[in-house]
Amino acid sequence: MATAFEKAKRNKLDEFYTQLSDIEDELRHYKEQFRDKVVFCNCDDPYESNFFKYFANGFNHLGLKKLIATCYVGSPIANTQLSLFDHESADNKTTRSPHKIEITEVDDYNNDGAFDLSDVEYLLRNRKNALTRLHGDGDFRSEECIELMKEADIIVTNPPFSLFREFVAQLVEYGKDFVIIGNTNALTYQEAFKLIQEDKMRTGYTKFNVGMYFFVPDYWEEYHKVDEQGRKLVRVSTTCWYTTFDVKKHKEYLALFKKYTPEEFPTYINYPAIDIKTTSFIPLDYDGEMGVPVTFLDKYNPDQFEVIGSSATLAGRAPDDIPKNLRGGPRFYLKNPDGSYKRLYDKVVIKWKEVQP
Q: pLDDT: is 57 or 259 the higher one?
């Protein structure tokens, strides 16, 4: 059965809206990185985006220099929270036309001691803030959005699942720091894997590969639960955060205990590396290359290990006698006791920086 992510990717259904609690849990770790910076949320309509709400609400607390948010197309919940432009016709609501919001000053305009959407209408009338329509469609790849990206220091958003490769490639092209949400399968994408291998990107603080719930529009027929406000949520089981910033767990050394034996750690048929079933089983005393599960990358400390490559890039030709149903892309193989072969899941090939005594 296809996962929510797989269906979204196949059908280009990218309207997954991140819960504020998930944003708060991850972004609280980067407070110092945000100070005096221009943050750009380039996939975020303020009607739906909790990223916009998080940064607008925390603008002063985080010490932001500027917050920019742009949206792509119409909002599924138009006019249910706030009206951004006055005197719009029913066919030309703000939420039906891409726009950008630039915030440089946030005050508690209604003096209730908190910043909320009721303050948004006031802050957008502040001469230091601006709400303007975009000439184009608001796509993150458009010239307008690229120019805004050039101005920004940090990109923070939940990019379209179906366009994750292009999104990351653009961030790299313009040399931007980022904190973004992506599918854990992206660890094996060539673009993302290369960044991790070169220690230019890493997984974030949120617990890896346990899944996240996202709000989806009312027209979605398949969903997992409904919240107290009647909003539909879909669980994407393979979701994590990616960032260019330092993350504490990637500086920690794995405490390991296994010793190498050829019986427990067989060598692949089509690549000279031994197979490791789980990260905790990495042998302390093996000096060669080792194939570990992709989940290893969530614990990867570049001071402890070197990432050589992956089965997608290193696997040699599969043995000729392997049945066709076991083929399907570069993978490593092990030989079973009965002479048959076992095709493995994607593997990451690593090597100790310094073998432990």
A: 259
129-151 pLDDT tens trace:
888 888 888 889 999 999 999 99
pLDDT over 50 at 180, yes or no: yes
Radius of gyration of the chain (CA): 23
Domain boundaries along the sequence of the chain: 4-248, 252-352
Report H helices in the chain. 4-11, 20-27, 31-34, 50-57, 59-62, 117-123, 143-151, 164-173, 190-197, 311-314
3-state class (DSSP) for residue 151: helix
Q: Which residues of 221-249 are buried (b: 16+ CB within 10 A; e: fewer)?
A: eebeeeeeeebbbbebebbbbbbbbebee
Residues 6+ apart with CB under 8 A from 301: 250, 251, 252, 253, 254
Contact yes or no for 130/101 (Cβ under 8 A): yes
- Residue 134: both structure tokens together: 């975009």
Beta-ladder partners of 202: 243
Can you tell me the distance from the alpha carbon of 72 to that of 69, in angstroms, rounded to the nearest whole number? 10
Token pair for 281: 């089983």
Q: Is 113 left (phi over 0), alpha (psi -120 to 50) or beta?
A: left
Average pLDDT over residues 14-37: 91
Q: What is the mean pLDDT of the segment spanning 175-183?
A: 95
- Gap between the Cα atoms of 179 and 62, Å rounded: 15
Q: How confident is the model at residue 80, as a pLDDT?
A: 38
pLDDT at 67: 95
Pair of tokens at residue 307: 């990432």
